[in-house]
Design brief:
heterodimer; A: 186 residues; alpha+beta; Gyrase A, domain 2; Alpha-Beta Plaits; 2 domains; 6-stranded antiparallel sheet; 5-stranded antiparallel sheet; 22% helix; 34% strand; globular; B: 100 residues; mainly beta; Folate-binding fold; 4-stranded antiparallel sheet; two-stranded antiparallel sheet; 6 strands; 9% helix; binds zinc ion
């Protein structure tokens, strides 16, 4: 199999991060991303092989060390790990899950990660995201697919004033510019 | 904004959802044994009631799952949402309910 990780260049190269008066927008370095889909009965084995127990509670992320498992649907999780680890993870999960049926897709290059931080992070996102992002309605550790203006994102609150976004690669420049504009407009 | 209660994610803005037609329409077990008229009814015959309507929705930009909902077609209020495979819940028709 060709090593795609060697061919990796950010779609946001040249756009750069920004640090405004209301919040900072930063591009996250490349990581490994896998979409796992399977029945609840497979989750014990995923936890053992991946090292993170995927959350059963809807819209919650489980984190252990540098790995995370984000609940996206009742049988769907987004697994995050360090750059370059995807092939090894796929191998370990395949061993652990045989002969159960499941789906595991490497989407490392499909999405890029953005981070919005600062006191007004919530307001910046709400310029294009219709969710209630109050910390009681959207607490730390909550994650979900949702919308940012015209594009779908995965939104994850990693701290009181920090959100991580996963955006489709081709929409990333749009999402970044939209957020920069929202920050300036506050 | 109208909030729709996804059976998996809870109350979410309507922008994240897509309508997916009338609910509880079972595909005939033996399509080739049906006449044209019966097959046509399965494909195109819909209740289109004025009042409570059982329909499929999909939480497209959320958990991605299909579910069923009871919605009043006269005022767009959702009376109930429930998972695929569950019985249609009993919901009282509002006062002066209009029959189809
Ligand atoms: Zn949902």
């Amino acid at each position: 199999m060709p090593d795609l990780s060697q061919a990796r260049r950010s779609v946001l190269e040249g756009l750069g991060s920004s640090d405004g008066a209301h919040g900072a927008l930063s591009l996250l370095p490349p990581i490994s991303r896998l979409i796992f889909r399977g029945r609840i009965s497979t989750i014990g084995r995923v936890a053992a092989a991946f090292g993170v127990e995927p959350a059963m509670e809807p819209c919650r992320a489980a984190v252990s060390g540098e790995r995370a498992a984000l609940w996206l649907g009742p049988d769907e999780w987004l697994l995050l790990a360090r750059e370059g680890e995807a092939p090894a993870i796929i191998g370990r999960l395949a061993d652990a899950l045989a002969p159960l049926s499941y789906s595991l897709v490497d989407v490392s290059h499909r999405q890029v990660g953005l981070k919005v931080t600062g006191e007004d992070a919530q307001a910046i996102l709400n310029a294009g995201c219709p969710l209630d992002l109050d910390r009681h309605a959207f607490p730390i550790g909550m994650c979900t697919r949702t919308l940012l203006q015209k594009t779908e994102i995965v939104l994850w609150r990693v701290a009181e004033a920090a959100f991580q976004l996963e955006v489709a690669r081709s929409f990333a420049p749009y999402a970044l510019r939209f957020l920069q504009q929202a920050e300036r407009d506050l | 904004m109208l909030l729709i209660d996804c059976p998996f994610c809870g109350k979410r803005p309507e922008l994240e959802f897509r309508y997916a037609g009338e609910a509880h329409i079972a595909r005939p077990a033996d399509p080739s044994g049906l006449g044209d008229e019966a097959w046509g009814r399965f494909l195109y015959g819909r209740g289109n009631p004025r009042g409570m309507h059982a329909e499929r929705w999909r939480h497209l930009n959320g958990c991605g799952r299909f579910f069923n909902a009871l919605r009043d077609t006269t005022d767009d209020r959702f009376a109930a949402t429930y998972k695929i495979g569950e019985e249609r819940p009993m919901v009282a028709e509002p006062q002066g309910a209009r029959k189809a």
